[in-house]
Structure formats: C-alpha cells, structure tokens
Amino acid sequence: MRVLPLLLTVALLGGCGAASGDKLAAKASPGYHGVEPQRAPARPAYVLTDTSGGSYDFQAQTKGRPTYVYFGYTHCPDLCPTAMADLASALRTVSPELRRQARVIFVTTDPKRDTAPVLRRWLDQFSTDFIGLLGSPAALAAAQKATGIQPAYQDGVTPTLAGHPDEHVSEKGTAPHKHFGPLGYAVAHSAVIFAYNSSDRLPVVYPGGVTPSDIAADLPVLARS
After folding, report:
1. 2 and 188 Cβ atoms separated by less than 8 Å
2. Which of 79, 83, 90, 106 could form a disulfide with 212 if both were Cys (CB 3.0 to 4.6 A apart)?
C-alpha cells in the first residue's frame, strides 16, 4: 500500500509507502504535538452516510466540537488500525467531559468492500463510539478533495499468510486487530489524522509516529480554541 501526498497540509507522511511533500509549507507549533499547517483550513463540508444508514452532514454534525478524521479502509494491514487504536487509547486517558465533546470519524476509501456492517464491525474493535462514514465513489472522492487530499485508489495487493487470506504479517508498531474477509487488493490513501478544533479550523494533523499521549495532550487545546 502506498501513502498519498497531501495537497494542502503537511510535509511528513509516515507509513508503508513513500512519503511525499505538500504544496504548502508546515510549521512546528509549541502548542501542539503534531504538525501545524501555516494557514489552518476551515472544517470542510460534505455529506456521506453513517453505518446506521443515516445521512451524515460532516460540517453541521461536528460543528464546534474537537473532531478527528481519518480516511482509510478496513482491509488496511497497518496504518488504519494503528491510527484508530491510537485515538481510542488517547481518549481513554482524558476526562469524561473532553471525551464526550470529541468525535472520531473514519471515512472509508474502499466503498466496494467497506459496507456498513463491515465498517461497523471493524470500528467496534477500537470503540463503539467511533463514527464510520461511507458513500459512492464520487461522494468519497469529493470528501477527500474538500479535506485537501488526493482521492485514494486501488494499488497492488496486500501480502497474506499462506492459507489465511484474511491475515498478514504485521509491521512493527502495528496495533493488534482483526480483518473480516480476504484482504485482496490494497488501497493507496492519505495517512494522517486530521484534528479540527472547536473553532472549526484545522490547526494540527498527526502523521504516523505521533503517540496517543501526544494526541491526548492536545485535546484540551482543540476543545478551548
């Protein structure tokens, strides 16, 4: 699986593919533990479908809340489950009040395989509170473009264990997780957690390597912005 470059935000993309730079420089911020865009973009607008079948207006339904967004897929062997596990771990360490304010959104980049039941079952490994969003290929591409990333695309295959098409050799640092079906093809996608604040801006993104404690430390800043 390859990691796609961001069109808008950061220059550091960790993961299982070649990293690539962005079109806007980023700066380090003493107030955050991730990477801060020079100009914090506004919370984007897009409407997708949640795992219960309801319409989910991202901008309206997360307005004024600290919100984490990740674009990935349930058959991802390493980056996606690790990002979700890190967010779940971070939220377990903050106050109940902060935890209630925060929203975690996982937007699939693999609409062919990530049906609502598949996405819900996969997310529940990490938290039943996490929101899974899906939609048509066109709607998902529009959501990624609105966020400032190149739309994901199918790219190669995921190596699996002999006789176990739903299992793979885990890269070092990958969070424990299960897949619920043959892994098959891989998807090239962005690999950062987008963190929107209560002022509906994007002050920081978290590339691979940022720890749950880093994310937890920043949540009070996101909530009071």
Report:
1. yes
2. 90
pTM above 0.70, yes or no: yes
Mean pLDDT by 10 residues, the chain (225 residues): 46 30 39 89 97 98 98 91 96 96 97 96 97 98 95 84 74 75 85 96 93 96 89
83-104: buried (b, 16+ CB within 10 Å) or exposed (e) per residue? Answer: bbbbbbbbbeebeeebeebbbb
The residue extents of the domains of the chain are: 26-224
CATH superfamily of 26-224: Glutaredoxin (3.40.30.10)
Tokens of 25: 């420089």
Within a 13 Å sphere around the CA of 207, how many CA atoms are in the beta-carbon half?
22
